[in-house]
Structure formats: C-alpha cells, structure tokens
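User: Hi! I'm a student and our assignment asks us to look at how structure tokens line up with a sequence. Could you show me two examples?

Assistant: Happy to help. In each example below, the sequence comes first and the structure tokens follow. Example one:
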Amino acid sequence: FDTLFARLRALHACQVLVLKEPELTKHFVELMHLVPQACFVVAVRDPRDVVTSMLDWGERSRREGRGHLFQQRDMAALADFYLAFYRRFWLDFPPELHARLRFVRYEDLVHDPREMGRRLQRYTGVPLADYDP
C-alpha cells in the first residue's frame, strides 16, 4: 500500500489522500492494519433516503435498458444492501478502530457543511478551511 499511496501522492502532487469510496467501509478493519496512519470517516445517511435513491437509480437503469437489484423493489434486499456497509462494525468492532473512526450524519453535512468541515478538519488534520461547499 505504501507504494500505491506514494504513486498517488506523486501523481496528484498532494500530501494527503482522501479516498471516498463507500465500498471501502466494508474493509476498514483490514485497512487500519495496512495503513496505520489512516483515519476513517463514515457518512451515514437516513436509510429511507438511501432506499429512495436506490429505487430512483434502479428506475434510471431500467429506462437505459440495464438490469439491477434496485429495480426489484425488494425492500429486504435493499435493506440488506444498505446494512452491508455497516454490518462489520456492529458484529465485530475492534477497539483499536474506535479511536480512528468517526461517524457523520449525511444530513448534517448537507445542512451545515462549513461546521462539519471544521469538525472533520480537527479530526483528520486535512486542511478544509478554504473548501467552499
């Protein structure tokens, strides 16, 4: 991972990498061991909004002629898809991850992005003062 991160930093001329990929949430336990300097932020969105977005996405896919789980309107399957991102934490939350992990409500990010930016800057050390939401 060190080589990968070094190449990414060189490619983008940066010192700090922010990887925004929801699928990585499922792998935080492994990543905390592979990248000891990493801190983790999970934006948690109201599940009702997530399911609504999934159904909208499924409808767009259907109109484009592509099939997808989100088209089936199977609420149990959609809930399972949503929970898969957080299940690992609820079932086996290693104490050493606790200090390196913050949960942020998506709605708070949308409602007051500047305040949430200040909080995230304090936690991560990533300079966000110049960020204009």
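Example two works the same way, sequence first and then tokens:
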Amino acid sequence: MRVLITGAGGQLGMDLVADCTTAGDEVFAYDRAGLDVSDRSQVFEAVGSVQPEAVINCAAWTAVDACETDPERAHATNGMAVRWLAEACHRSYAHLVQISTDYVFDGNLDRPYVESDTTNPQSEYGRSKLVGEQEALTLLSGAAVVRTSWVCGRNGTNMLKTVMRLARDNPQ
C-alpha cells in the first residue's frame, strides 16, 4: 500500500513509519520541514505527487498550554490543516486517518468515553483538534478518526519514559 504519513518526525509518526515499512508498505514520510500541513498548496502538492492510497495525519501542535496563548496557530495546524488534507485526499481518492485526542471531551464522565459521547473540549487544543475531526468527517465520508489519550512510543519524550527515568534516578 502507498501510505503518506505527516508528522513523521514526531513520536507517533516515527513509529508508524517503522511499522508501515516493516509491513511492506511503500511509505512517504513527511516531517514538519518537508511538509507544512497548514500550507494548503504544500499539502496538495505532496498528496497529488505521491497519490497515496492512505494518508495518516500525525502532524499536530500538541503543546497544550501554548495552544491557549496562540489559538490561531492551534486552529491552523490542528483544524484547518485537516481540511487541506481531506480535500487533497478527496481529489486523490485516498483514505484519511486523522489522529485526534481525548481532549475533545470535558473529562467529567465517571466512565471511559465512547465514540458517540458528546464532545465538549475545555481547551484551545481540544477545540482545535475537534475542528480537525469535523473537517475530516465532513469532507470525506470514509475518513477515520482515532482518539488517543497518551502516546508512548520508542521515540521522543513521553510520560512512561519520564516515570521510568525518575524511578531509576530517584530510587526510594
């Protein structure tokens, strides 16, 4: 399968590139320097030239606190960029997998959330990611949205690695 992965320089993107390559897929990996997903013309050029069967969008601005002070950037990167990807996928007949977050919920339920629960984001990050979900699902009937809470992979910094480092460095 021809797979285009955005955000390939990030934690999730690096692991997906490795996993898709191992599975025998023909992978076209774009990090932020190679593809600014908030630039419509760059998105159309990349998807149009690769003609992938699937696009997995791992690109996002995940600095939750920083999104509060720069909501315009958050919505450009996490919301409108997904519109550009969805439009490009529509033109190329590619399937879009949009990576999202549990921040689209308010966190008030006393049980795990399910797909059909009402969204109610409490932060600019959550609102921007919800816009991205809506853009993907509105423009592409076959798009898939994957909501995750924690990403813990081989690469990058994550909560699991931090806890393990702290436990190793400060045995009690």
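Here is something you could point out in your write-up. Residues 11 and 155 are 5 Å apart (CA to CA).
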